[in-house]
Specification:
The complex is a heterodimer of chains A (116) and B (154).
Chain A (H helix, E strand, L loop, with lengths): L3 E7 L2 E10 L3 H15 L4 E12 L1 H16 L3 E5 L3 H9 L8 E2 L2 H6 L5
Parallel strand pairs in A: 2-3, 3-4, 4-5
Antiparallel strand pairs in A: 1-2
Chain B lengths: L2 E6 L6 E8 L2 H17 L4 H22 L7 E8 L3 E7 L26 H8 L2 E6 L4 E8 L8
Antiparallel strand pairs in B: 1-2, 2-3, 3-4, 4-6, 5-6
Helix pairs in contact in B: 1-2, 2-3
Classes of the chains: A alpha/beta (116), B alpha+beta (154).
Amino acid sequence: MSMKVSTRQVDGITILDLSGRITLGEGSVQLRDSVRDLLAKGSKYILLNLADVNYIDSSGIGELVSAYTTVRNQGGELKLLNLTKKVHDLLQITKLYTVFDVKDDEASAIASYTRA
Amino acid sequence: MPHREEEHLTGQQASRITYTLESSLDSVNKVEQTAEQMAKKAGIDEDEIFKITMAVREAAVNAVLHGNSYDPDKRITASFENTGESLVIRIADQGKGLDPATLPDPLAPENLLRGSGRGIFLIRSFMDEVHFKQLHPGTEMTLIKHLGTAQTGS
């Protein structure tokens, strides 16, 4: 029921492939720790692939927002890739869809970063 | 172990299940799963099941986290009832009380980037009716989904 995270690098961008649930407790904490670890290692260009995230609650939404602002405050960029319909709809009704840079194609997402 | 009461009301098809649970994430999951089973049994379509399940989960999180603050001495009570016309879910905590009028609007531009504060907004978005009742101590939230529009088939 919890979330799995795997990390890969493509052209200087760190892609986190997330799967499962981002909810209060495990999923939210894993996301927070993963992003914090990347920033600590100097990886500031992050793409969260949410294709296999089938559920997210208000805590998970809050964690996405916190990850976004934390990365931005450190001069980096965090974008979202491949939202499922449920996650897309949740970001729409919470008015966050336009806050995040949301992509549906990995190659163009990678190309869209303005690397320092 | 959760305490469970099951009440089958005679003379009608309504039935109510009530759980008294510890203030833990396991309890949140239990409440969420019960809501999902109840909605499925009522023949509700998949999108509406998701909304009901999520709203009930948010209410349970609210009770466990914001109401009872994970206090091991405090309990939450969750009751699930299908009246035949509506699904009625009541979640109560033993916390210091919640005044919904004081909650900041999560859609306001100054609140959009906050890391929390969206739970009750989502509950209101996903249910047909949401009511708050002050207990002494605590808060009871009643979530109602009208059947008919939410059901598939007949």
